[in-house]
Design goal:
heterodimer, A: alpha/beta, four-stranded antiparallel beta sheet, 13 strands, B: 422 residues, mainly alpha, abc type-2 transporter like fold, four-stranded mixed beta sheet, 16 helices, elongated
């Protein structure tokens, strides 16, 4: 569906995108996860033809020039910045962008109504966009790109600065799009979003892809062990505990134990079978944050 | 073409959603038109009034007559003051100049033409040099008129001749032949005065020393010619300048807001997006013309020369300013910088192009500089159609210049935008 081959883009001495390659299959949701300045937005701009690469190629369904009108018609790009006309009403915004994509008449009206419904904006659709909250503007910003029902969606940090309610609505919308079989490229610096939405994730830092795989595989490869904290009614002897737990470093503290293991469920099942009674149990499995930390030595939001 | 129209309609909606925009684009030119229209209308009816102070230290009959001459001139408003007050008023900028008639001003020809000790002095405001030059012309005119009155006074003239006779007779510097020649001339002059006294030249020597005939260069028109005809092209050009500036800023706003990029990502060419902006600017200019033309017709009863040529001039002028708009929007990356840079550029064009001050008042080097301002060519094309009675062939040159300027700026603007966006 879309393929990036050795993409390069420099701004002076800074390599914003440095030899980035990936391929996204039809119907797949692919995440670009990285901190601010990692090169996510530049990559999206290269993919949709807003920027010309200094090197490498982008191929969309075999066509290598994303600036072609027919290629762009198949793209829906949700920019990171709010790109709506705040002076116009929500409906006027949608109608305008719909017309730019060649929609008209009944089809336009239906698509506008659908998008208003998806974004939960149908009750105040004739209000000026400037009167909306930040989250509502974000939702409008997003559905403006869905009007022409594009098969490929590029979403550049669509949840930046939104309230939890709007965030959940945006997630639901993206999941709906995903279920409809659309191909999605999603950039974010929130690992929870990438974990929830993406089939595969590329970890991006300083313009380079550090690794790329499914979330589970990335965690397995780079996430490290899970951390478990258990509090017992009566702490068993350390020796008996060590029989059940596959960990070399077990910390004992009053009635609690703490340990790290790459097989948390097995260890807990063994403990349970030994007859101990738990008061509390905390299991912190590795996540993409740990993957990023282990790959770069920094946290995602550093 | 449909998309172009939708883009233009969107821009018009955005424009009309802001009351500030509506005022500056539509309201300001109308106010400007009303102000200048009324101002020029009133100017034709009463004295235009360059205010000067006159100090009469001579207190002679001649000086009184001279001051009366100045007071009767419509171009002047005369206040009589003493020397200190007059100079103080000039210093404070309350009057354009002070005219001081020194003692001896009315002592005949010798006083008037005495180059060693001037009997008339002018103290003028250094910041109003053009008015000072104009005033000197008016003073010379009044002097000639006062002299005309003196020439009608035969007794005074005879007294002057007697003085000259005595002077020539007592002069050792002249040879006998030369003295004779002068005395013969004075005899003949005396006979002429006597003849006029007898009524053979009843008017005497009185009358306008210089008689100017006035030819109307505007086209023949059956109704009254409105002074608004003269200001109408300038007002239109101000409207176009406002429109150019507003739309240039709107392009930058779209770029900073991200909507420009959103449109670029869509299935539109660069030409579409910029063409839509240009079309919106063009349509807005047409609206401005309609509003102003309606006002000009209803309020000022402005006659229109040649409608087809007026439309041709308008078309070329607006296209030129659309091109200019495209260039202006590349002068900065923020609304503030484009607003400031664009307005400075347009103001300079307006100033040098004659939108503020008629070109005729400018020094010649500045008039040459005005050739580079599209405002000058716009005004010329519109004036040509409205009252200069231009033929089609005469319209070609300003129209081609306007189109060339517009095309060049449009091209430059598009290239610079592309460069900035790449």
């Amino acid at each position: 569906m879309i393929k990036a081959d050795n993409l390069k883009k420099r701004y002076g001495n800074i390599a914003a995108v440095d030899d980035v390659s990936f391929a996204v299959e039809k119907g797949e949701t692919f995440g670009l996860l990285g901190p601010n300045g990692a090169g996510k937005t530049t990559t999206i701009q290269l993919l949709c033809g807003l920027l010309k690469p200094d090197g490498g190629t982008v191929s969309l369904d075999g066509k290598t020039d994303p600036s072609l009108v027919e290629v762009r018609s198949s793209l829906g790009v949700v920019p990171q910045a709010l790109a709506i006309y705040e002076e116009l009403s929500v409906r006027q915004n949608l109608r305008f962008f719909g017309r730019m994509y060649g929609l008209s008449g009944r089809q336009l009206n239906e698509r506008v109504d659908d998008c208003l419904e998806i974004a939960g904006l149908n009750k105040r659709s004739n209000d000026r966009a400037s009167k909306y909250s930040g989250g509502m503007k974000r939702r409008l910003n997003m559905v403006c790109s869905f009007l022409h029902a594009p098969p490929l969606l590029l979403l550049d940090e669509p949840t930046v600065g939104v309230d939890p309610q709007s965030r959940n609505l945006i997630f639901d919308t993206i999941e709906t799009m995903k279920n409809q079989g659309r191909t999605i490229i999603y950039t974010t610096h929130y690992m929870e979003e990438a974990q929830r939405l993406c089939d595969r994730v590329a970890i991006l830092d300083h313009g380079k892809i550090l690794d790329m795989d499914s979330v589970d595989n990335l965690i397995k490869k780079h996430g490290g062990p899970s951390r478990i904290e258990a509090e017992f009614e009566k702490l068993p002897s350390p020796d008996s505990i060590k029989q059940y737990i596959d960990s070399e470093n077990i910390q004992f503290e009053e009635s609690k134990i703490r340990f790290e293991t790459s097989r948390p469920m097995e260890s807990l099942a063994m403990l349970n079978r030994s007859g101990v009674r738990f008061n509390t149990l905390k299991v912190q499995t590795a996540n993409l944050e740990d993957v990023f930390l282990n790959l770069t030595g920094r946290r995602l939001r550093d | 073409m449909k998309k172009l129209l939708f883009l233009a309609v969107k821009d018009m909606r955005v424009l009309l959603s802001d009351k500030g925009n509506i005022f500056w684009v539509f309201g300001f030119p109308v106010l400007f038109a009303l102000f200048f229209g009324f101002m020029y209308s009133e100017a034709g009816k009463g004295p235009s009034g360059m205010k000067i102070a006159v100090v009469d230290e001579d207190k002679s009959e001649f000086s009184s007559s001279y001051i009366s001459g100045l007071e009767s001139d419509e171009a002047l408003i005369v206040v009589n003051l003493n020397r200190e007050e007059a100079i103080e008023q000039v210093r404070k900028g309350k009057v354009s100049a002070a005219v001081i008639l020194n003692e001896g001003f009315g002592d005949g020809f010798e006083a008037l033409f005495n180059s060693d000790e001037p009997k008339l002095e002018i103290a003028s405001d250094p910041s109003r040099r053009m008015e000072s030059g104009y005033l000197q012309g008016l003073l010379a005119k009044a002097q000639f008129e006062a002299l005309g009155d003196k020439f009608a006074d035969q007794e005074w003239l005879r007294g002057q001749i007697k003085l000259w006779r005595d002077e020539v007779g007592g002069s050792n510097a002249l040879e006998t032949e030369q003295s004779k020649l002068f005395l013969n001339f004075f005899d003949s002059f005396d006979t002429l005065i006597k003849d006029s006294n007898d009524g053979s030249f009843s008017a005497g020597f009185k009358g306008d020393m210089i008689n100017f005939g006035k030819l109307d260069v505007s086209r023949e028109y059956e109704g009254p010619i409105s002074p608004f005809q003269i200001t109408f092209p300038q007002v239109l050009l101000w409207g176009f300048l406002m429109c150019t500036s507003t739309f240039a800023i709107s392009i930058v706003k779209e770029r900073t807001d991200g909507t420009f990029d959103r449109l670029r990502i869509g299935p539109l060419g660069y030409a579409h997006i910029l063409g839509g902006k240009g079309l919106a600017c063009f349509i807005t200019c047409i609206f401005i013309v309609c509003i102003l033309f309606f006002g000009a017709k209803v309020i000022f009863k402005m006659p229109m020369g040649n409608f087809p040529l007026f439309f041709l001039g308008l078309f070329c002028t607006i296209l030129c300013f659309v091109g200019l708009m495209m260039f202006v929007c590349t002068l900065g990356r923020t609304e503030q910088s484009v607003g400031a840079a664009g307005w400075a550029m347009l103001m300079i064009m307006g100033m040098f192009g004659g939108a503020m001050m008629p070109l005729a008042f400018m020094p010649s080097w500045l008039r040459r500089f005005s050739h580079f301002s599209p405002v000058k060519w716009g005004i010329l094309a519109l004036e040509g159609a409205i009252w200069r009675d231009f033929k089609f062939t005469e319209m070609i040159s300003p129209c081609l210049v306007l189109l060339a300027i517009g095309f060049t700026f449009f091209l430059l603007g598009v290239l610079m935008l592309r460069r900035q966006d790449s």
